[in-house]
Each structure stands twice: as structure tokens, then as C-alpha cells.
Amino acid sequence: MEEFTKKILVSSEQIEQKVKEIGKEITEDYKGKELMLVGILKGAAIFMADLARSIEIPVTMDFMAVSSYGSSTKSSGVVRIIKDLDSNIEGKHILIVEDIIDTGLTLNYITDNLNKRGASSVKICTLLDKPERRKVDVPVDYRGFVIPDEFVIGYGIDYAEKYRNLPDIFSLKEKKCD
Ligand SMILES: O=P(O)(O)OC[C@H]1O[C@H](OP(=O)(O)OP(=O)(O)O)[C@H](O)[C@@H]1O
Ligand code: HPA
Ligand SMILES: [Mg+2]
């Protein structure tokens, strides 16, 4: 028996529409510039794949993996790089692609880290933003949906590594024992 109940929060149709809108904005904003998308594994993999195809200028793509959550629903607060970028980003325009900003600790660490490598610009694109949980401020340049303080899964986002392949985004609530 499942110990959680799932409630749909953002449908695949809503996501598809939003990805198109954000892609259009990025296409306009970076016209004439060399843009590198940096996806943060694993959560952003699915968003990155869809977003990249909605951008109509040439882009390069790279990935980083960091972890602060492990298999818990609470951030440990300590960010570790598990996989670094393959190339030097000095002088490049970087757009970090994230699935969700929660406490902000992950992106605060990554933006600092990439800025120190001498990128020309480092901007942030996130599909979901959960502002109520923020511990550090992060400047968000492209934002899909603002969501309430609920644990979410689907469209790349996991709970204990499961549910990433769900096409919609759900909030997970623990079932009450009676
Ligand atoms: O704003 P924060 O509180 O730091 O949380 C957001 C981060 O947490 C999740 O990643 P996680 O570390 O769980 O790895 P995953 O992407 O592999 O699931 C999510 O994908 C974000 O990267
Ligand atoms: O709501 C969430 N769900 C899954 N992983 C997460 N990492 C930060 N917030 C979340
Ligand atoms: Mg996770």
C-alpha cells in the first residue's frame, strides 16, 4: 500500500505551454550571443531536454550534478559537486537550468561557483519556485510556476529517486494513520 497521496499540481499541458513561452523569451534575450545551457542533474534533465528544443538559437549544453537532499525530503544544507562541467566557461554566457528552487542553497552555491570561473554572465531558469521555503536569496531570471510549500514529484523531480518519469507534477502528502 502507498503511504502517500498524490495531487496534481501542474499538468503536462501546462508545462508544455510554459516551456514554449520561456523558450521564446530566451531566444529573444540571447540573440547574437553564444549561450550555454547548464542543466543540474538529475532533476532538471527532462526540463532541459524540452526547453533546449523550444529555443531557436544555437546553444551548447553541459551538465553538473550536485546533491544536498540525498534520499531525504529535507536539504542537508551542504552542497557537494558530484559531476562537474566538461569545459571551461570563461567568457561564456551561462544559463543554469533547474527543475525547482526550494531553500535556494543548491543554486546559491552553483551560481557563486560558476561566477568565480569567469563566465560573462550567469543567469537562472527554473521550472518551479517554492519561495516560502527560501533560506538564501537567489536571483531568478526565468521562472515557470510559483508553487506552495509542498513536496513535489514528477517531470524529472524525485522522491527517493522514484517518480521522475511522471509527465505531470504532483504534490505528495503523507497518508494519515487512523
Ligand atoms: O533549493 P534547494 O533547497 O537547494 O533544492 C533544490 C534542489 O534540490 C533538488 O535536487 P537534489 O539535490 O535532490 O538532486 P536531484 O536533482 O538529483 O534530485 C532539485 O533538483 C534542486 O536541484
Ligand atoms: O519538493 C521537492 N521535491 C523533490 N525534491 C526537492 N528538492 C527540493 N525540493 C523538492
Ligand atoms: Mg531530488
SSE blueprint and pairings:
Layout: E1 4-10, H1 12-29, E2 35-41, H2 45-54, E3 59-67, E4 80-83, E5 93-101, H3 105-115, E6 121-129, E7 142-146, E8 152-153, E9 169-174
Parallel strand pairs: 2-3, 2-5, 5-6, 6-7
Antiparallel strand pairs: 1-9, 3-4, 8-9
This protein binds 1-O-pyrophosphono-5-O-phosphono-alpha-D-ribofuranose (PRP), hypoxanthine and magnesium ion (MG).
Helix count from the secondary structure assignment: 3
Which ligands appear in the coordinates?
Answer: 1-O-pyrophosphono-5-O-phosphono-alpha-D-ribofuranose, hypoxanthine, magnesium ion
What would the principal axes of the Cα set say about the shape? globular
Say how many strands there are.
9
Domains (count): 1
Question: What's the mean pLDDT score?
Answer: 93
Which class do the helix and strand fractions yield?
Answer: alpha/beta
Low-confidence stretches: none
The biggest sheet, with number of strands, parallel, antiparallel or mixed sense and barrel status, is: 6 strands, mixed
**CATH fold group:** Rossmann fold
Under the CATH scheme, which architecture would be assigned? 3-Layer(aba) Sandwich
Give the end-to-end Cα distance, rounded to a whole number of Å.
Answer: 15 Å
Q: How much beta, percentage-wise? A: 25-35%
Compute the CA-based radius of gyration: 16 Å
Q: Summarize the helix and strand pattern as letters.
A: EHEHEEEHEEEE
Residues in helices, as a percent range:
10-25%
Strand order of the largest sheet: 4-3-2-5-6-7
- The top-level CATH class is Alpha Beta
